[in-house]
Structures are given as C-alpha cells and as structure tokens.
Give the backbone structure.
Amino acid sequence: MRVLVVGGGGREHALCWALAASPLLTKLWCAPGNTGIAEVAECVAIGATDIAGLVAFARDKAVDLVVAGPEAPLTLGLRDACEEAGLRCFGPTAAAARLEGSKAFCKEVADAAGVPTAAWARFEDPAAARAYVRQKGAPIVVKADGLAAGKGVVVAATVAEAETAIAEIMESRIHGTAGASVVIEECLVGEEISFFALCDGTAAVPLAAAQDHKRVGEGDTGPNTGGMGAYSPPPAFTAALQEEVMARIIRPTLAEMARRGTPFRGVLFAGLMLTADGPKLIEFNVRFGDPECQALMLRLRSDLLTALLAAVEGRLDQVSLAWESQPSLVVVMAAEGYPSSPRKGSVIEGLEHAAQVPGAQVFHAGTARREDGALVADGGRVLAVCGTGPDLRAARDTAYAAVDAIAWPGGFCRRDIGWRAL
C-alpha cells in the first residue's frame, strides 16, 4: 500500500514510525513532515491545510490511503475532498469533525446521546457570559467554541479569572474566530484521562488510554499547553472503566452521529474526567492526541495500517488489537517561551546519545535543519522523548535518561511526568 500521512508534528512522526513497520506498506509520504519524519518517510512540501494540494498529490501518486494527523484538515473537509476524488481517507468528514470543531456541537450531541457530561451553556454575547459566570460562581470552565490548538480552555478558580478569560477570548480574540462564541461549563473534579477508540461509522474498537499533562509547569501549574507529556496505561483507568466508557460514551455517540446522517469514521478521542459519579465526558477530539499518540504507538503490537484500513472499509467488527503490557512515558521538550512566544532557532545536540539509551525513542515535533546541518528548534513543542520499561517508574527513568543525554540549553521540560501514578 501507498500511504500519505498529513501533518508535521510529534504525533505524525509516531504514526509514520508505526506505519513504516507494516508489512502492507510499499511507500510512505508525509506532508509536510519534519526532520525526524524524513528518516522514515518521504516528506512533501504541502501544508496540512492545503486540501487541494494534498488531494492532487495523492491522485498523482496513486495513494491507497490518506491518514489525517491533526484536526484542522479534517474540519476543512480533507476526507470529503478525498472521497470526491476517489481516494480513501482515514478520518471523519467535515460534518462529523464538528465534534471537535465546535465545543457546543459536541455538547449537543452528548446531551442527545445521553452521554454523561458537565452542565453547560453557550454564549455569543460577552455581557451575558459574564452574567452567567457571576450567577454560577467559581471554579468554572470557559472554552472558545472553535478550534484553538488545544489552548482555548481556561479552568477559572475565581469569577474574576473567568471574566478575564471571556474578555480575552471573545473581545480581544486571542484565538481568532474560534472565540466568536464560548461554552461555559461546570468544573468537573477528578482524574483526567485521554481515551481513544477506532470507529468505522457503526462499530468501535478500544485503542488504549493515556494521561496527558496539559499545564506547562510542574505540579500542573501555569497556563494550558498542547501537552507537556503523557503515559500509558494510566493505572486509574481499569478494564471495567474502559467497558463503561465504551457502553455509555463511545457507542451512544456513534449511534447519535449515524442517526444525524453524519456517521463517524476515524479516531474518537474522549477527554474524560473520572468523577465520584463515574466517568464523564469533558470533550471529544476527532484524531489522535499529541503527545498521547506517541505513548500509544510505542505500546501497539498489532499492525497499525491493517487497523486503519479496517476502519475506513467498515470492517472493525473483525478487528482486535494487541498491546504491550509494558508502560510507555513521553516527555515533551519545548522551546523557551512556550506556550506564549517560543523562541526558534536554538541548536539541539546529542540526539544520537539519547537514541542509545535502552528503551528510549525520540520523536520530532518542531525541528528543522540549518544550511550548515545543525538541528534547530522550529516550533513550541520540539521533541517528544519517550521511554518504555517493565513498570511506569522504569519507563519514566528511561525517558529522563534520554532527555539528559540531549544538549539543548534553549529548551525545557517538566520533570514530573507520571506524577499522579507514581
């Protein structure tokens, strides 16, 4: 099979790494890719949101399967455009991708499907949003309704914080048009889990769970980020909880999306809170998480390409997936200044030493090569440094040993990934 992966981050490096191991694969491209992806796939200079360019390339190269990494091309209709061109694409249609593209739509679907979730309200008027916050009190959650690269959520500890978030999102438009409206939610309390399921429109197969570390600082302090690290599997997420989530959240959502005429095919990523009343949905994403994907790919024993193809062809009822029992842990190394204003261009050395740490794996997220051959930071989240081991503590020690082998004065990481479990 000839496969094109769309995207250029750490998640896409992990997907390409896993797909490259498939016995079905004959050729792998990634658009636009990155420095690390170039080691396992041929990178193509087409942007992830250039739908017409991606489709033209896939037709020209007789691509058998297009695999969408990030959410943006899906919400822009990559799958729809591929199907119009007679191409197969792993990922939902634009209509189904609204599960991530609009927080309000996600909540409407959850309510219609009877999925347990936080009480919520949507506002287009900042004054009405502020009045609602004053009525409800804090803590309370303020979310930009549209796509904001994982940074459009504020968990406000006080009413004043919530009002500031409303002003920044709706009036200052720090997330652009994503903040034209906001969703304000009850603040759920518990342990947060990322759970993933492969879906083919009617059937769903559980992938695995991971725990992300959203805030930039140790002890979960500071602003939200795209994710500073993850590990899988989280001990708090038992087999019984997984079956409860499949029965009460994943399958009812699939049924409701099919009832609406927008069946969901792809990866359904349920952000969950394990509350005292059981698991509740925080929000859906319509793709693999980043950095959770890196943790999952390190544990997946089954052939990824075979599984993705079964989802596209509606054959998931014939698929079961095998996983390594060994845990994996991912430490994100970010450029100084992240998440507000990451500084690009700092030189990174020592990746060859990190690669020699037994059980370690490094995925590139935001790197580039200078003309002189030096590897430099070219994004906010720059490297995903991973470790596996017989238990979570060993996996963590492996990952940090690899981190310590990298010489990058212009970067930083959290030193407490996995702290909730350890």
